[in-house]
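Lab notebook page, bench 4
Experiment: in silico fold of construct C2
Operator: M.H.
Input chain length: 336 residues
Purpose: comparison with the prior construct
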Amino acid sequence: MYEHYYGLNAKPFQLKPDPNFFFGSKGHKRAMAYLEYGLSQGEGFIVITGEVGAGKTTLVRNLFRKLESEKIIAAQIVNTHLDSDDTLRMVAAAFGLLYENVSKADLLIRLEQFLRSCDRQGKRALLVVDEAQNLSPRTVEELRMLSNFQTADKSLLQTFLLGQPEFRKTLLSGDMQQLRQRVIATYHLGPMDATETRSYIEHRLNTVGWRGDPSVSEDAFAAIHDYSGGIPRKINTLCDRLFLMGYLEEIHDFRSSEVNEVIGDIQQEFNLPAPEVEAQGTSNLTEIEKETATPASLDSMDERLSKMERSVISVLDLLKQILSLPRVNKELSKRR
């Protein structure tokens, strides 16, 4: 793969959220400050919103890495296309509790017993709910009810809600007044500017041992920012394809021309021949397929793309080795 060609010790632009690559842009630092502040309060809800791919999950995983495991028991749920009862089961499962063939009343009893047990041990429970924009108002209310588990002087459960911008509309709806009263901090994670985009790319490269090969020109950085809009996931997707092209074509200096070529390839791949084909393709999707087409499936998509990439590169390496053999070159010369 291209990381070996450029002397890197790991893949720098993977789609999977990895706290080892956390980059503290102005927005990410501020969001992290809100999370840490909320954590210090030990109660209520913290709400972080941002566009798809803005880095919300990476933000939380970086927070998890900082947590003192002996004091805080953290759990995260990411599948939110569920009704309120199934969401309670997901919460129980995330904390390692038995949830199968259990009534709602028994689930609540087990959750309360677990939370009180944590408190007796001097520990706190933290629940992180990702993709919160998919939660129904009834499910949000169910999560709010969990915050009613308290001792005489403190709450037994704290919740972080991470979602896309539309989740803010849910919060502002008339039936969310009780939840809003328990939100102690909220922050919207916006895109990075051009300077931060360049620093972000260089940060990820430096994390895996980059020594300036390949070089990236000023106009190349500008083209990357123009296309990605400063969204980390879009930057990763573009740069991963750019470096792959660099490996295949033995490029060591990236300019805007190479970036624009990759952008053109990406746009062409996702352009369908006609609007009716797109409509037909969408209507034929099952509910499961529609769900797996959401950002939550990007981790598995990244893995499949990586496998395909490794297969293609293995074949190309083999061809390079074959063509470098003296006998083959001599035979080809004769045929010419």
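Observations: Residues 56 and 162 are 7 Å apart (CA to CA). The radius of gyration is 24 Å.
Next step: discuss at group meeting.
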